[in-house]
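Long-time lurker, finally posting.

We've been working with HD domain-containing protein (Mucilaginibacter sabulilitoris) and I want a structural starting point before designing mutants. I don't trust myself to interpret raw outputs, so I'm hoping someone here can both generate the structure tokens and explain anything notable. Sequence follows.
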Amino acid sequence: MENNNLIAATAGFVRDTLKNAEGGHDWSHIHRVWTNAKLIAQTEKADPLVVELAALLHDIADSKFHNGDEEIGPTTAGKYLNSMNVDAGIVEHVQQIIRHMSFKSSFDNPAFHSPELAIVQDADRLDAIGAIGIARAFTYGGFKGRELYNPQIKPNLNMSKEEYKNSSAPTINHFYEKLLLLKDKMNTETGKKLAQQRHEFMEAYLQQFYMECGQ
Ligand code: ADP
Ligand code: NI
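Top reply, 14 upvotes:
Generated this for you. Predicted structure of HD domain-containing protein:
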């Protein structure tokens, strides 16, 4: 199958599969990550087909909804790509990218690096910051029934992954615990540039937020 047709078919498959997904990882998230990955790839040496397939398939199945099975994403993506007769090398590479996208899995799996992973990871991180990142954070906080802000509860930068997941801290804390740290984790030059602009927007947002809280 021609690359363009394979990408279009994959986009259709992902959109269908994520029809009922929750707001943080729905098709609109995938679409933004796909768009940003293509943009970043323009200035990097990387295989564009692997970048696009990995961006499209990176959240195809979330271990959170499959009893913590960390392999569910790579397995689902692999089955789909094999059904489309994609080259084994490409399938394997896309699976490795999905496996290593999340912070947690980079501890559990042997180190894997590729320019294509660097690009898709940057594109996913960009979607957690800036105006969209703010919207996603408050959506998540609302879903969890968390306070917007509570000056008595200070951000905690030393939480374990488990404590972090179960924390009921106000959503503003998430900015200090994660979102404001992301710009220094970017891999690519274009990613860094885009992250810087979104970071400054979040800082301006927080200033306005505290001003409106009378601080
Ligand atoms: P990802 O799939 O990007 O690795 P998560 O599943 O952890 O990220 O989070 C999805 C979205 O929800 C992100 O935009 C993230 O910032 C937001 N989010 C995650 N944890 C929190 C939290 N404790 N408070 C507010 N927002 C959160
Ligand atoms: Ni994602």
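Before you design anything, note these points.
The pocket of nickel (II) ion (ligand 2) is lined by residues 25, 29, 33, 58-59, 124 (CB under 6 Å).
The chain is about 60% helix and 0% strand.
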